[in-house]
Amino acid sequence: MAPRPRSDTWERGDPYEHYVGRWSRRVAPRFLAWLGIPAGRRWLDVGCGTGALCAAILDRCAPSSVVAVEPSEGFREKAGAQLGGRVRLHGGSAAAVPLEAGSVDVTVSGLVLNFVPDHRAALREMARVTVRGGTIAAYVWDYAGKMEMMRAFWNAAVDLDPEAGSLDEGVRFPVCRPEALADLWTSAGLRGVEVAPIDVPTRFATFDDYWRPFLGGQGPAPAYAMALDETARTSLRDRIRERLPLHADGSISLAARAWAVRGAV
Fold it and tell me: What's the pTM value of the predicted model, to 2 decimals?
């Protein structure tokens, strides 16, 4: 039987940054450019993590205020250190936002929805705190398709251990697909729903640069890797390395796609 992942929760900022946080920071500006929100708006970031999306909002959107909600104390500490007090950080969750009704103009969420137990409850709560006519938007990794660093991992893992397929984010998280995102936003009563892909390059200097973040043990794929014994983990590492497209200098160029969705309250 395949080892079970430790958890889908994210608690520590540094392993997350090395794993996917560095790529999220590339998606955030493109997501905000796609939204095209005018200056002077009140923003809420639901599940802010280490603060990648908040930082991009501050740098690019001239907000009147930015508030963020994050359940992990470790992530809030990391975000607070990186954002330097420019964002009001609160504990809470997507389904329990500690803000008054209609208190923000724009509610966004980056790479969080797949880990939210009740999507509909989360959308209701986002709509509650957002003014009528305001925007609710999010993006999620395309786990089932063009998030290539993770696809390479899970394809190799399933080859070696078919039961690992049940742990694959592309299988477990249906809202990683554009049709499911559009249906979720529409079913929440949001208007003018749009979905779009956001692609960013993910270049790794060496195979070790690719592999090392999977040893952080945080998140489904790293948790699976670290639950293996040393022999099985080495076999998985070698199978992935055989398949990745290494350049002559040892670097690896992959792509990461996120699906973005937006709608109006």
Answer: 0.89
